[in-house]
Amino acid sequence: MVRAAVPQSAVAPAVQRRSIIAAGFGQNIVLTTVTTFILVYLLQYAHISTQGMAVVTAIITAAKIFDAVSDPVMGSIVDMTRSRWGKLRPYILYSAAPVAILSTLLFCVPDGPEVWQLVFFGVCYFLWGFAYTVCDVPYWGLIGSAFPNPTERTGVISHVRAFGSIALGVATLGMPWFARLLSGGGETTGLGWSLAVGIASVIGMGLFLLAFFNTRERHDPATQERLSFRVLFTTLLRNTSLLMVLLGSVLGFGRYIVQAGGAVFVVVAYGDEAYFTLVGAAIIVGMVLSSFTAPLLLRVVSGRAAIIGSSFIGATLYIGMYFAGYQNLIVMMVFIFLTGLTLGIFLVVQATMIADSVDDVERRTGVRNDGISFSTLTFVSKIMNALAVLVFGIFIVVAGYQSGVTVTPQMQQTLFVSITLVPALSCVLSAVPFFFYRIGSAGRNVGASEGVRR
After folding, report:
1. Cβ neighbours of residue 416 closer than 8 Å, sequence gap 6 or more
2. Model-level pTM?
3. Within 13 Å and on the Cβ side, how many CA atoms surround 138?
4. What is the distance between the alpha carbons of residues 155 and 17, in angstroms, rounded to a whole number?
5. Which candidate in 199, 333, 402, 417 could, as Cys together with 50 as Cys, close a disulfide (CB 3.0–4.6 Å)?
6. How far apart are CA 15 and CA 218, in angstroms?
7. Which regions span the lipid bilayer (predicted)?
8. CA-wise closest residue to 73 among 375, 386, 354
9. How far apart are CA 306 and CA 313, in angstroms?
């Protein structure tokens, strides 16, 4: 299949790189705020009961699974889109405002009977998940399309992951204080959270729009052969290496439990959600450092070796953290930092492996399916988050925690197990499928496929 390349002279490569990285930073500000603090907001400020939290957990899990299943559909729609802006960029333009609005509404649960609060939250959360799918799938596909050189692409992915971790830090460390500041008093209020999330969402999705204005896609959609659902899904199912990445990622959902439930755990363990700024800082610093240095690691070891090694090391660290206990916050922060190092490596190599698998399947079949292939990255991220929220939610229910109850040592220990031993087991399981990933370009041979790409 012959494709004509879109001239890249309209946007300087450096501008394209910076814009993609800034867009990812803004997007992650919004995503981190919602995923990290929504349970805290519902428990502490919307005053949802234990029974209500069981419903919330079910809503979030169902919504994320629905979103995850819809990701490949969205990816297929992207691959079949033809416009003067390309197949990926139009969705980035039109999804920014809905994501900002719905993110704010999630933190504006009205007072009233709990059943109506849950209905309001459920509707907003499902719509938010759909809107986020529309923005996230083409964003990752654009990285693969805009940067055809594997070495350059790996560098861009590492910076996107690193600045995504910095955004995670800004939101995790800053949002509780920002919400308190906007509450207008000594204590944080629900209104303070609503205002803080609204401002952060507008700024974050404003940055996200840079990915539309300052990037260009690799192929000219006007000359590319129109693809069908059948061709796209058949090509996807033939991509065995990609399927191994997906399976290994899903099994590694435990890596996200600290992010999903860490803010609640510190409330239970230490009595103040602000302590999560310390725990969050530890994991974020680790993720940033390893994200920036991952390309250097991939020059000396294969991607498969890096991701398997990080999984087993991560499991060991989680077990060590369990036996060290949570009573000493400094010791716990050290372990969290070290697990952050392994998570950063995992995230960079995961995205690089998917990008390489897209190139490999194009070489073998002549079909380039950035949209549906990169939709699997968002697919597994949502499944991992859904499973993390589900498992942590189950532990909340088992522990019997809700706002206003007397916290017991047994309650603290139950939740501590959920953020240590569960991730340890998950890391071990996730390593297995990566033994069957066969593309050498994911590691030190990253440039090898460049010569056979076309």
Report:
1. 265, 269, 322, 325, 326
2. 0.71
3. 29
4. 10
5. 402
6. 16
7. 20-42, 48-70, 91-109, 156-179, 191-215, 236-254, 274-298, 305-323, 329-349, 383-403, 415-437
8. 375
9. 10
